[in-house]
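Exam review. A common question shows you a sequence with its structure tokens and asks you to describe the fold in words. Practice with the pair below. Do the first one on your own.
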Amino acid sequence: MLKISNTVTLQDWEIQLTAIRAQGSGGQNVNKVSSAIHLQFDVKHSTLPDIYKERILALSDSRISKDGVITIKAQQFRTQEQNKEDALNRLAELIRTAMVVQKKRRETKPTRASKERRLKSKNIKAQTKSLRGRVKH
């Protein structure tokens, strides 16, 4: 069972974990041992509340397919248990970030002092550049 928040949990049968061989270098061990974990989670057919499903499916994340299946590949660690834990943590973090509501940006005008500072710095830069011209005798 994976705990997302105080009220939301995912059951083990909802998450499909598959052991696969890790990619990349690692010597002889990497060719023999299936230590990487391939996690798949079907959002549409899960027991998550509807608001969670809507927000997750609205994310523009490459790990979420058009069918609503989240796919996470964990191969950072040498042991299968650590990779399994890492994949589950990454799934929980993805679901939690989908529920964070972004604060709307309110447009503001620049202050009078900031406008004056900008114009002063532009004037200084212009004077510096004008001094680079040809010297008159």
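Now try the second one, then compare your answer with the model answer below.
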Amino acid sequence: MDIEKIRELIKLAKEEDLKVLRVGDMDSEVHIETKGGGTAVVTENGDGSRAAGSGGSSAPGLHTVKATQVGTFYTHKEEDSNENFVEAGDAVSAGDQIGMIEAMKVFNDVFADADGLVEEILAENGDTVEYDQPLITIRPKED
């Protein structure tokens, strides 16, 4: 499924205030969930492999928050500020804002989807990011 079709599905999910939208064909399946104002997209291929738009792990024990769209990623809270949403070592909870992505003059908030400590910020303020690009890693809380 091409990226434009996925964008249309995300837009539909938001406009219709859907919690879950799942669409598939013989080659691929797209599963979209909206949570806390953010959108998580998970694409499942016909061979059972999986690409997460939000979530997944890059290293053992780490959780990776990934870009849900193409655009410019901002870590700063305001344009003329050096204050970041989060820094490495900060404690975050699922639903905390960790940045935003601007696409076509629209700013979309990016939220943590796991509780834990920010291990590393992988994208710099003002970086152009691609769909599914890792943005930050979180070390989950140990129970």
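Model answer, second protein: The chain has two domains: 3-52, 63-140. The longest strand covers residues 28-35. Full marks require stating both points clearly.
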